[in-house]
Amino acid sequence: MVKIGNIELGEFPLLLAPMEDVSDPPFRAVCKKNGADLMYTEFISSEGLIRDAAKSVQKLDIFEYERPIGIQLFGSDINSMREAGIIADNANPDLIDINYGCPVKQVACKGAGAALLQDIPKMVQMTSEIVKIAHRPVTVKTRLGWDDNTKNVVEVAERLQDIGIGALTIHGRTRSQMYKGDADWTLIGEIKNNSRIRIPIFGNGDIDSPEKAKVMRDRYGVDGIMIGRASIGYPWIFNEIKHFFNTGTHLAPPTIADRVTVCKEHLDFSMRWKSNHAGIVEMRRHYTNYFKGLPHFKDYRLKLVTTYSYDEIISILNEVQNKYSEMVMV
Fold first, then answer.
1. In this predicted model, what pLDDT tens digit does every residue of 103-149 receive, in sequence order?
2. Residue 204 — φ and ψ, nearest 5°?
3. Contact 170, 202 (CB under 8 A)
4. Cβ contacts of 323 within 8 Å, gap of 6 or more
């Protein structure tokens, strides 16, 4: 049984990665329904949170059915992160997670996210401050290092464990790689098999099939896997991996009807959570992913991303289902 603090996550948990502009409550709802064991909010700016910025505060929204769920924070100033940690702690998540892995310029070049991999003492101090104020476990997500010459994640793992974090998720790329090339899980496995390490170690990067999940589990011995991009438009991946682990066989892929049903559920939640107008607009980024592989879907997509009418969207989705009902998706 994998545990973070007193939180039991099963024998081999599958985690949903925190993804900006993706892993909001509507997206998390469909992933939870399809087998995600632990989820995180989109990452939240510590500066935005302590200044009560509406966008940052809204990201604190969590729902009982999502549990266990963590709130993820990022920032470059230790005092701001500490204050944001108190606010996040008061929102009553199950975990608080710190992002030391985001590689994008707007974050890393301001000294946050993966930038802290260049200043391990500051990372340790920042983490320690949040561990002190939190009434729940603190976890961390990071990368192998800043670049190929500074892969310092082994030191990071040991030092963060020593100040009290409850688990560590490692993305198998450096910051300089961004999301290019193949994820290297070798160091992730090395940390998991380090005799000093007692906390759960989760691997992240390039898991897009049940077979790959099994290889990474068996080869590197990690305690669980975090899945990000492969779940966008395909929340079924969590249950597909679990089924493959348990039986060695594949679940039948979702039918067109399944895809349309989940897409509608996602849309409905998005409208309830944000507002009818904002929910419809937010959902536009997801249609291509839900129907990836459909021939000649472009015309339907164009209609879906230009209408503001809920009834029209439902009508288009029903038309998609009827047109492609005989098609087998793989």
1. 898 898 889 999 999 999 999 999 999 999 999 999 999 999 999 88
2. -145, 140
3. yes
4. none
Nearest to 286 by CA among 308, 270, 299: 270
Characterize the bridge pairing of strands 201-204 and 7-8: unpaired
Sign of the four-CA dihedral 234, 329, 282, 65: negative
Taken in order of first residue, the domains within the chain and their CATH numbers are 3-247 (3.20.20.70), 256-323 (1.10.1200)
- Both tokens of 247, joined, read 């039986």
Q: How many CA atoms lie within 13 A of 48 on its CB side?
A: 15
**Residue 181 pLDDT more than 90?**
no
| 7-8/3-4 β-pairing | antiparallel
Asked if residue 145 lies in contact with residue 152, where contact means CB atoms within 8 angstroms, the answer is yes
pLDDT in tens, 251-266: 999 999 999 999 999 9
Question: What pTM was computed for the model?
Answer: 0.94
Query: Is 102 among the residues known to form the active site?
Result: yes
pLDDT digits (tens, 9 = 90+) for 60-85: 999 999 999 999 999 999 999 999 99
β-pairing, 38-40 vs 69-74, is parallel
For 143, the 3-state DSSP assignment is: strand
CA dist., res. 269 & res. 185, Å (int): 36
| Closest C-alpha among 199, 247, 244 to residue 217 | 244
